[in-house]
Amino acid sequence: MTSSHRNEKKSKVLLVLVGVVLFCLVTTRLLRIYPGENYGGDLTTLLQAARSVAKSSSATRNEAVLTNERGALARRPAVEELISKLRDASQSASGGEYSLIDLPGLERERWIRDNPCKCRTELKTMYKRRRWTTDMEEDDGLWDAVLEEYSKLHRICLRRIGRPNLRRFFENKKTIKGCKFAIADYSTGGGLGNKILTITNTILYAIVTQRVVLVPTSTLLPELMCEPFVGSSWLLDSNEFPIPPWNSTIQFRPIWKYHHEVYEELDRTLGASAENFKKYPPVSTIYASTMEESQYQPDSRFFCDVEQENFKTVPWLYFTGCLYSIPKLFAIPGFRVTLEELFPSRRVLTRVLRSVMLPNDFVWDRIVAADAKHLKNADRRVGLQIRYRENTVEFNEKNSLVNQRILKCGSENNFLPALADRNATLQSHEEERAADPSKFELKVFVASLFSGFVDFANESYVSHPKMNGEEVTLVQLSHERTQLYGLDVDRQLLVEVFMLSFSDNLVVTPRSTFGGLAQAYGNLVPWFVEFRNDEPGAIERAPCQRAQTVDVCYQEADQVYSCPYDPSVDQKRIYDVVPYIQKCLGIDALDGLQLITMDATGEMEYPLTSDSTVDLPE
């Protein structure tokens, strides 16, 4: 036998031995991970399980390679640091039980089967079909990598405690290294837009600060949305867990402290010197902190570095409110670079909503059905969101004015056709339609508590020929005339939010979080219809104004830093320190702040106008 033949035989034997060793290792891992499974010597079942683990490991390696390639193109050290912190927290939380860290292929498949979410794979297609707007979505894999690591921390902490034991864990003021919590609630009485935007604030904050986010069942959100964190659940039973404001019992008041008590403790510890913080970083003695019941947002000191360092040592935080506040997370110096690297175009709300706030299959099927029936074959889709805040009183006063302004806005900005002949009849219009059935089809979706615009447009718009002969169809799914609440209402409203978000062009009502939610999901820069009356003797107001960004306005936001331990920013205007955080337009909410999103070239979406930089009166 030649030397080459002997070497070849040795190589084959070595490969076989390596294969046997790997099979044994995988088998041992499976039996350790699934001690409760009865494989009963069924070699076929075990082999299938082994293949599943091998496939999962291969996919993980491929993703790691892909992530490394992306990282080689543009390294983002702050994001890498965030991922490292999430991994460190997971390692600590596991307590050395490394089986808690992994989510084997079979278990992942089982979780996905038990928590289906068709929207996760189908939503992007709905946006890509639009012909008149570009869906510029950041998709470099970094946010997905952060979510994967965060999901790992989420499931480790809840498995380590045991979901049935969560209340007892809290009552006894227990802690686990690596596990901190953020309860994402909202103020009762707010609509669906307020609810989703408020809870989204807390979710992003929890991810950046490595906290396990929990959403109370009383918000109804867990019954609307898919479970977002693989292998875990964000659901918190409101009837079981002692959630402020103490609806059922007062025995937990000694545990829950208000945020201002955290600041007061910090002030007693540091005195008036920020240097004391650098020398002796304080450790809070507070176990659980909640926002003041009268507030709709965190107060100004929450958005400061030293205060955030102190909150790190508080195991439980409770958030409520009804205002969108993500822009001011970018104002926190310690968060800013990480958020800038994660969301270079500042389309943070669109990215978070499309990955974490996805409608469950029951709601998604209704969305798909409504779209197929009303919008699917349109050449162009226009969304109109019309909100009369004072209900019937304001509707009766402004309906005619708003309707005229919407038509003028659409005509002047070329997304609604101009009328060719206002004296033409419905009969002549139908004859024209029959003569050329292949004409451009425009569908207008209206979301409003009132049917005023549809009634008006059908009478004076749809029933008459258009300048270019477009075929116009109006769609409105509901008009209750007053705001209602409840799970069925929220489901219907979420359908309408997504129908609006599928638009090529969107017109919204100023200060409406419902319209804002649609613009964020749709990644759209909308037009604000002008609701203000013309001033006597003044120039007639423009019918609408284009927004300056995809981002929603953070209404009623404090615009000045209040950071007593950080003189570099204290009492400075936020938009002077962070240039891409600017005042909202006057037509929308001049007392607010918002992120200015960037286009594909890295430039601001729309140049800032003087309307967005007018100082508020002292």
UniProtKB/TrEMBL annotation:
GO MF terms here are: glycosyltransferase activity
Keyword hit for Cell inner membrane: no
Domain of life per record? Eukaryota
Q: Which GO terms describe its cellular component?
A: Golgi cisterna membrane
Q: Which UniProt keywords apply?
A: Cell wall biogenesis/degradation, Glycoprotein, Glycosyltransferase, Golgi apparatus, Transferase
Which EC number applies? 2.4.1.-
Q: Which PANTHER family match?
A: FUCOSYLTRANSFERASE, FUCOSYLTRANSFERASE 2-RELATED
- Name used for this protein in its record: Fucosyltransferase
